[in-house]
Structure formats: C-alpha cells, structure tokens
Amino acid sequence: MSRAPEFITLSDAAARAVAGANSRHAALIEDAFGVLVETPGGGVSLSGDSKSRAQAKKAVQAIADRADQGLEISEADVRVAIGQARTGAGGPPGSLPVGRRGQVAPKTATQAEYLQALSQCELVFGLGPAGTGKTFLAVAHGAGLLLRGEVDRLIVSRPAVEAGERLGFLPGDMNEKVDPYMAPVWEALTDILGAEQLRRRREKGEIEVAPIAFLRGRTLSHAFVIVDEAQNATRLQMKMVLTRLGEGARMVVTGDPSQVDLVNARDSGLAHAVSLLDGVKGIGVVRFSTADVVRHPLVERIVRAYDADAARSRGDKGPDDR
C-alpha cells in the first residue's frame, strides 16, 4: 500500500480547526488512525497507509465542514468525527438556533436522530447517560420553536431530587426553590437566548419552570414541555405529566433509567412509560449510548466503568436474588 503523503486543501479556519490548539486535534487524529498529520499551510497533509489515510480524511473533512459553517470545534467534536469516520455514521446539522458559541448542531448520529424525532413527534423520550446532549438539544429545539412563534410557551419541569418534592422546606418563592435544580436548563437557555432575553421571557411567562407536582390539574396548550431527569418521577407522576398535553403542545421527556434516586427504584416512571408507549403513533423513543457522550473524554470512560460494574453486579446475583 502506498504511504505517500496526501494533501487536502482547506480554508484557513478549517485547517486551524483540524490542527487545534497546540496541535491537540491533529494528535487525536494521529493516535486514532496511525497517520501523520501536518499543516504546511493551505490545508493538511496525511501520511500513512491508504486505508488509514482514507479514514483520517473522512474525519478531517467532517471537522473542516463544521469549521466552515462557523461552528466552534472542540475536542468532543474531533472525537465524534473520528468515531463517525470509523463506523461510517453521521448526520447533517438540524435547524436550531444560533447560540453564543455559534450554530447549535448535532454532533453524533443519535443526536441527529433525536432532533428528527423532536421535529416529527408530539412526544419524544430521550434516554441515555449523562453528557449525551439530551437536555441541551431539547432546550435548543424548544427555544427555536418559541423564537419562531410555533409555540407560546416553553415549560421546563423535573422532579426536585426527592420523589416527594419537599420544596416547602426551602426558602423563597417557587422559582427560588426550583432554580437550583434547573441549573443545566438555565445554562442552556442563557447560551441560546442570552441572559437579557431569557429574563424578559420569564417575566412575560413565556418561559416557565415548575416541579412536576405543580403541573397537576393543568392543561398545557400551545407549549413545548421538557420533563428533565424523568427517571426520578414516580409512575403516578409520569402518568399525570404525560396527560397534561393540550392543543398544539409537544413534549420531550429525558432521563437516564440507570440513575434512579428514588427509594424504590422500581417505582421509576420513565422506564415504565417507555415500555408501555414505545411504538405508539406520534411517540418517538431515542436511546443514547456512551458513544454519544460529548463532554470531557473522561465522562465516557467513567460511564463505561459504572456500566461494567452494574453488569458484573447483575451477573453475580442468582435468579432468586433478582
């Protein structure tokens, strides 16, 4: 096989993105495919056997395409591009708002599938480990619907740590009681809308936060509803919140069935609801895996380690112990 260098012409922005700060991105590509990546100017040069170069070229072009769209390229993006080059998976960016760090776009094939489900289904379940973008993409999609006037309100709800939601013991009004639990959602909304627009829309009631218990008895019409950390909702709470949908409303329910904090894990409503509703017309179920983790590289390895330990624990139990 030929090991002659192959030069790929790129824009300056794309070449910088492929190289990365202190050539960190190039090093990741080199380690993944066993090639040499050089940036002599005007593009990148790949040296190695033809098969390795072909895979590395796919990753380079995926990174370059994102950079040419004006998107910020992180190490997570590079790892995703590498994984997709190896498997042949991938997906085009969805129609999402532009955040402070550029156009919001899916970084894995499963994220692209998730966004497609959000656009096509009235109710979507997003299941999987931390760091896979379930909540952020749901918030981005909902913010986009709100900005385009396709819904009147964005409502975010979640169980407040304890299944009983003893919020009365916390100081302040309802927003002050719930806000500490909603930090990931507020961070995502601030990134997409900006702090000032977020404040104005909250004051006008266009963006609302409420613990699951406070949704009882309401009909949520012309709204996009996000139920986050749903693995900690009981079966009764889950049935209640799913039946709040009114005219023109859409809902996404996110959570990790393996991270249940309820005293009785079997009472978790998330896995139960999915087992009942998967395959029902108008309902989408998207399952993320550790391969979709786009946070720090350690997060994926941590999740895999815990999954392996859980698998070992299940294997150690006899039939009578389960």
List the helices and strands and how they pair.
Elements: E1 6-9, H1 12-19, H2 24-33, E2 36-38, E3 43-47, H3 50-68, H4 75-87, E4 98-99, E5 102-103, H5 109-120, E6 123-127, H6 134-147, E7 153-158, H7 174-178, H8 183-193, H9 195-203, E8 207-211, E9 223-227, H10 235-242, E10 250-255, H11 269-277, E11 283-287, H12 297-316
Parallel strand pairs: 6-10, 6-11, 7-8, 7-9, 9-10
Antiparallel strand pairs: 1-3, 2-3, 4-5
Helix pairs in contact: 1-3, 2-3, 2-4, 3-4, 5-6, 6-8, 8-9, 10-11
Write structural notes for this entry.
It is a single chain. By secondary structure, the chain is of the alpha/beta class. The chain is built from twelve helices and eleven strands. The protein has helices at 12-19, 24-33, 50-68, 75-87, 109-120, 134-147, 174-178, 183-193, 195-203, 235-242, 269-277, 297-316; strands at 6-9, 36-38, 43-47, 98-99, 102-103, 123-127, 153-158, 207-211, 223-227, 250-255, 283-287. The strands form three sheets. It has a six-stranded parallel β-sheet with strand order 8-7-9-10-6-11, sandwiched between helices. Strands 1-3-2 form a three-stranded antiparallel β-sheet. A two-stranded antiparallel ribbon has the order 4-5. Helix 1 (12-19) crosses helix 3. The longest helix has 20 residues, at 297-316. The model is unreliable at 90-94, 162-170 and 318-322 (pLDDT under 50).
